[in-house]
Amino acid sequence: MRTILACVLVTGVALLSGCAGSGGGKTESQVVALNGAGATFPAPIYSKWFDEYHKSHTGIQFNYQPIGSGGGIRQLLAGTVDFGASDQPMTDEQLSGAHAKVLHFPTVLGAVVPTYNIPDVSQELSFTPEALAGIMLGTIKKWNAPEIAKANPGVKLPASEIVVVHRSDGSGTTFVWTDYLSKVSPAWKSKAGAGNSINWPVGLGGKGNDGVAGLVKQTPNSIGYVELVYAIQNNMNYGRVRNASGAFVKAGLDSVTAAAASAAASIPADFRVSITNAPGAGAWPISSFTWLLVPQNIPDAAKRQAITGFLEWMLGPGQQMTQALSYAPLPDSVVAQEKQAIARIQ
Amino acid sequence: MRQVLRRVPERFLPGTRGLIGLRARLRTGDEIAYLATFAFAATIMAILVLLVFELYRSSGPTLHRFGLSFLTGRTWDPVAGEFGALPFLWGTVVTSALTLLLAVPVGLSAAIFLSEMAPPRISNALTFLIELLAAVPSVIYGLIGIFALVPFMRNVAQPALASAFGYLPIFQGPNYGVGVLTAGVILAIMVLPYIISVSREALLAVPRDQREAALALGATRWEATWRAVTPFARLGIVGSVFLALARALGETMAVTMVIGNNPKISASLFAPGYTIAAAIANEFSEATSDLHLSALIELGLVLFLLTMAINAAARLMVLATARKGTQQ
């Protein structure tokens, strides 16, 4: 009896694992399957790219799971995926903890914009970096505070309390937003800092861009931040921000690419760089790269060729597809720099 | 009833004619049934043990670093690497308590109406509709929360509470619409179907004699219901409350959409809060540092222990009242 039962159980387990095994991974020998996981922000353009690339290179199949930057880095380090993707560069600590060297390749640019809902104000608002940091820290409490009013002459701001809305889920959007605030405000840097999830001094948390947008729309006199792509696609109002060169800039695909171009001179060889508060006159200050994370050594020649081939294609025809999906393309200087870096994959 | 139950399996027991080729020592199907059911029961236990062990093991870094201060710390700062779970514990306990406070009286009354007072046809139709509510995904409740409940709480309910009971600290402070109270209300709506439908079944299972005896003694219909029928169904009703509590403690999506997600401890029910389940769901996918991940897993362990402690306490309470009671 026992042996029979054991047999049944063992066969069952074997069947199950067999099914699970055949479900993913390599299917046919001719098709090179590459698995990746990571950031959710660039997922729409990545799936477009992988789809288009597969059409012209039928032997190569990319699978991408948008599970979040943290998960992408983790899976890459664990060796369960062939490539990762992240909205923030890996830290030195993470890189030194990795078994293999990891290369960063910027793919597109993202940006974050402040969005607000003040029932009595229909004009577009402008914010100084100090005003944004003060609002987020809770030191600027009312909309008619002089720090906000000074940048908006002619706008009648109400004396109502500001309600701050932030992301409650860990997010690259939060990282870019807080990274910017840390650069422009020493007080923010010491009290809150930059990260995917942070200890917010004040405010309500909404889950995802839609959660933040929903709370802002619902709550009178509130201010929050969302991805530029999300704001554009949902026709949301968003404010101007004064950039490092002193100009009040409106976020747009051009001003985001301009931010990357103006920071290009100081981009290090490993592309791990924050481009918030970029110096250019037309630069949107709250911009960031998003990266593909690729191991430097890929022993499987077929996979190596597939990845390098894709990166070449992504930097060429791939960049033409970005604007249709509201992503800002990389500036030419960065593309040129990256093309040289592809040779480092061995 | 009991006789029937005992007889049904007997008809199937001695035969096992359909099973050919089994070894000789396999006299009856009993052995198979015993071993198979044992194996499945053991699997559940094994999963439970494995779960706790895995949670404990993976929360090593924070267990080691913070020890018990993890439970008393009030700061949750992933950037600085400082993790204290008290605001989440507080939020979880307060929202669950609010949920039961709101849902149990309503749910129990509805169950009594459906089982004791409503005409059977109406009762069945209403029960069907109520059970449909239990199948609504929680994200839908969250959306209803954001688009209907939050504006209602901000514009109507909370100002009314503040003006009527504003002297109480729990009804003071800024009114955002999202917050602990709103989370409690949405959770109460979500758990109502469980309480109503399970309690109704329990009340319906009370033997007729119980009612008739009470009525024969001169009780009014309400007295018979409240003093003879409801106590008899007590275990089932308490079970329904457990089920509701379990759902309230573990609910993630709907809560995170309306609670404001701010890990602060505030006396006011209008203030935003945070629950353990919501924090894990929000931060897990983007937790990049080992310590942050470990802290979130330890939160899971804390939620598990909290659920166990509350269930144990509730069970003890039931045992204590059952001993005092006379009906069971």
Structure in words:
The complex is a heterodimer of chains A (346) and B (328). Chain A is α/β, with parallel strands linked by helices. Chain A folds into two domains: 7-110 and 289-344, D-Maltodextrin-Binding Protein, domain 2, CATH 3.40.190.10; 121-264, Periplasmic binding protein-like II (D-Maltodextrin-Binding Protein, domain 2, 3-Layer(aba) Sandwich). Chain A contains 13 helices and eleven strands. In chain A, the strands form two sheets. Chain A has an eight-stranded mixed sheet. In chain A, strands 5-9-10 form a three-stranded mixed sheet. Chain A is elongated and about 65 Å long. Chain A starts with a helix and ends in a 5-residue tail after the last helix. Mean pLDDT of chain A is 85; it is low at 1-28. In chain B, a hairpin with a 4-residue loop joins strand 1 (76-77) and strand 2. Chain B has a two-stranded antiparallel ribbon. In chain B, helix 2 packs across helix 14 (290-324), helix 5 (86-117) runs antiparallel to helix 11 and helix 7 crosses helix 8 (180-204). Chain B is built from 14 helices and two strands. Chain B folds into two domains: 2-58; 75-327, MetI-like fold, CATH 1.10.3720. Chain B has 328 residues and is mainly alpha-helical.
Helix count of chain B equals: 14
The order of strands across the largest sheet of chain A is: 2-1-3-11-4-8-6-7
Order of helices and strands of chain B: HHHHEEHHHHHHHHHH
Let me know the number of strands of chain A: 11
